[in-house]
Specification:
The mean pLDDT is 75. Helix content is 86%, strand content 0%. The chain is built from four helices and no strands. It has one domain. By secondary structure, the chain is mainly α. The radius of gyration is 16 Å and the shape is flat.
């Protein structure tokens, strides 16, 4: 089953909305010193989602090999950019690393699922 670009974008936005609701509910349940770490990790994960959506919008119009080449180069650039930001937050701040890492990994897993859905839809078209 293939989807149009509009339908794919709609499904991605619905997924992000559901994730945002779950994140807000989780944020209200967290108390104490680890809350700041969780928020920072969550925001870094949301940065990856935003970068993904921007690159999807920019490179989504390309076809075939051009799409794959541009997409994978942007994937590499996003990966190293997020790793750099992650390392700088760990080095420069006094946040709880476990909460920060855990919330970042959850956000990044969500990002990866959305990315696989996008790639699948793009490659099936």
């Amino acid at each position: 089953m293939t989807y149009s670009n509009t339908e794919s974008i709609r499904k991605v936005l619905i997924g992000i909305f559901i994730y945002a609701i779950l994140s807000v509910l989780t944020a209200y349940s967290i108390q104490g010193i680890s809350a700041g770490s969780w928020y920072a990790g969550h925001l870094l994960g949301m940065v990856t989602v935003i970068l993904h959506l921007i690159s999807s919008y920019i490179f989504g119009r390309k076809e075939g090999k051009q799409f794959l080449k541009a997409y994978f180069w942007s994937l590499i650039a996003r990966f190293f950019g997020v790793c750099f930001i992650y390392a700088m937050i760990i080095i420069w701040t006094e946040i709880e690393e476990i909460s920060f890492t855990f919330s970042f990994v959850i956000s990044y897993l969500f990002h990866s699922v959305i990315e696989v859905i996008f790639l699948n839809n793009k490659l099936l078209d």
